Amino acid sequence: MQFTRADFPDGFRFGVATSAYQIEGHQFGGAGQTHWDSFAATPGNVVRFEDGARACDHYHRLDEDLDLIKGIGADVYRFSTSWARVMPEGTDRVNAEGLDFYDRLVDGLLERGISPALTLYHWELPQALADKGGWRNADMPDWFADYTEVVASRLGDRIWSAAPINEPWCVGWLSHFDGHHAPGLRDIRATARAMHHILVSHGRAIQVMKGLGMGNLGAVCNMEWSTPASDAPEDVAAATRYDAIYNRFFVGGLFKGEYPAEVMEGLEPYLPTGWQDDFATIQSPLDWMGVNYYTRKRIAHRPDAPWPAYQEAPTQGPLTQMDWEIHPDGLKDFLTRTAREYTGDLPIYVTENGMANPDTHNQPDTARSNYLTAHLKAVQEAVAEGAPVAGYFVWSLMDNYEWSLGYEKRFGLVHVDFETLARTPKASYHALAEWWRG
Ligand code: FCB
User: Fold this and answer.
1) Fewest C-beta in 10 Å: which of 1, 81, 108, 299?
2) Per-residue pLDDT tens digits for 38-50
3) What pLDDT shows up at residue 3?
4) Separation of CA 383 and ligand 1 centre (Å)
5) Across all residues in the chain, what is the average pLDDT?
6) In 3-state terms, what secondary structure has residue 23?
7) Concatenated DSSP letters for 315-361?
8) How many domains in the chain?
9) In the predicted model, what is the mean pLDDT of residues 66-88?
10) pTM for the full predicted model
11) By residue range, what is the domain housing residue 339?
């Protein structure tokens, strides 16, 4: 890689990201059942019915993994706490062993000079709350606020940054409309309610953390560029609808206090009563914005379907192991658009970016290094155009449980042998370490 730290703005932070369920090993340490466990146990949802029961066994290999984060020269480690590990039934009872684990994690980072970036929810909803309707339930903001208070009271004095909910689009749309993630629903009413309750829960969590004296609080949204499959006006309109649902709904709520018209056409009849009154909570002021970016889609009109009446057109161009098109310009465009239209001077972090590539245990891992290089250049271009980008975090530190795609999609800078659990840094890890370590 042809970079040095001096090629990025002063104080720019580099980091790596993971999430609890994807690496820890959920069967250990008294964690409660989650909706991902039951989703994975149901045939048809996850490749080979794989789940996060053991994952990377990070729970027992914490020090080794923290050393890997230090070894690459990361300034920041973005991780999540698991709600079901901290509160196995979702409310009331706290699992002391679970909180102790995160306490050790945070102290271990600080001892190594790494800033802890906390995410409170990265998708493993306690089953007991899923049984009550999960994100569809209007009580979710209260439950989430209580959980936030438990975590923040214990860790908040040592956390560098915190964000409540990773990727609201995945938690809302992908999981309740597309049915691809837990709880696997395909229900427009569930979707509308979940999407709104996610934002209210976000706002409540921000208020709780602020109340406890925490600062540097943000939101993390995933964005996927959408390009019309043709110049036909129906395809252009379909791509705009896709963009509104995926990329503009959540930032619209957070920074404008409104939802895009193209989304309201479909979802308004299903939103919970009184939704208009929630924007004061949703818009609790933030200190930064996080953008997760991987790819773009080509979107076409779908004539035989009701709203949103779009479909994905065949992918083109260079693809990753996920069959995701490699399109670095989309990152530049989102960074500049987010600043211009939503967040102004607020620092923006690329909170996730990376690619899946087949097993590269003993291979050069060139594709991943090239992908990261191209996207880091896109970050530089966005900075040159005035976007206040303040950091870039790679997804992911190590190969892990890639949700419905199980363990075969390898996003790691570190290879994990899922038989022996041995960790082996890949060439891309070394390529970053060379200039991150300075
Ligand atoms: C993001 C998720 C992360 C991982 C990457 C590949 O959407 O936040 O958990 O699955 O995609």
Assistant:
1) 1
2) 999 999 999 999 9
3) 98
4) 24
5) 98
6) helix
7) P-SSB-TT--B--HHHHHHHHHHHIIIIITTS-EEEEE-----S--T
8) 1
9) 99
10) 0.98
11) 5-436
